[in-house]
Design brief:
The chain has helices at about 20-25, 35-50, 65-70, 110-120, 140-150, 165-180, 185-190, and strands at about 10-15, 55-60, 95-100, 125-135, 150-160, 180-185. It is of the alpha/beta class. The protein has one domain: Rossmann fold (3-Layer(aba) Sandwich), CATH 3.40.50. The protein has a 6-stranded parallel beta sheet with strand order 3-2-1-4-5-6, with helices on both faces. Strand 2, helix 3 and strand 3 form a beta-alpha-beta unit. About 40% of the residues are buried. The chain binds zinc ion. Zinc ion (ZN) binds next to loops.
Length: about 190
């Protein structure tokens, strides 16, 4: 029997960031993304089995998002195939949540924080598991917003990736050192769900 003083039970939410056609196969394709697909699939399947909520946080840009258009060119434009989740990870409409976003962070103007408060019968999630692309960009900015909302952060080290090994490793280190993220393998995360 758990004692009152015991650390509060983790109530996880899985975030799958930008596993979209344009990021994996299209305009901003990332060859390194292939290795994370099976790991995210396993994690999402385990989450479904255990009733852990899964949020697909997907870029869905408008042409007026000039801050990103200038830097990256048009990508994941609203209404295009490029903005859809890759077939291998297609969200299950019955249980998964899709959160469209227009900036790096999955929290930026999206209502994700409110959505996270609604899960677990309104008790809310108190921890996020970050997966998807890219370790040093959207994953890292999402981690910042989770950090300032006092959510525990777990990053799936084999479930996130970036354009280069350096970008990936430095992104992981940054989230660990600056946001206190726990960096774990997908298999370890699955065991703790
Ligand atoms: Zn974008």
């Amino acid at each position: 029997m758990a004692r009152q003083s015991r650390k509060e039970q983790a109530r996880y939410a899985i975030l799958v960031v930008d596993m979209l056609n344009d990021f994996v196969y299209g305009k901003l394709k990332c060859a390194r993304a292939a290795r994370v697909i099976p790991n995210i699939r396993r994690l999402v399947a385990a989450a479904h089995e255990k009733g852990v909520p899964v949020f697909f946080c997907n870029d869905e840009h408008l042409p007026i998002d000039t801050y990103e258009m200038k830097l990256w060119g048009p990508h994941a434009m609203k209404g295009t195939k490029g903005a859809q989740t890759i077939e291998e990870l297609r969200p299950d409409d019955r249980v998964d949540y899709v959160i469209p976003k227009r900036a790096y962070s999955a929290f930026d103007g999206t209502g994700l924080d409110r959505a996270l408060k609604g899960v677990y019968g309104g008790k809310g999630a108190n921890a996020v598991v970050i997966t998807g692309l890219h370790t040093n960009i959207c994953d890292r900015h999402t981690a910042y917003d989770a950090f300032v909302r006092n959510l525990d952060i777990v990053v799936a080290e084999d479930g996130v990736d970036a354009f280069t090994e350096h970008d990936h490793v430095s992104g992981l280190e940054y989230m660990k050192n600056v946001y206190g993220a726990k960096v774990k393998t997908t298999s370890n995360i699955i065991r703790s769900l």
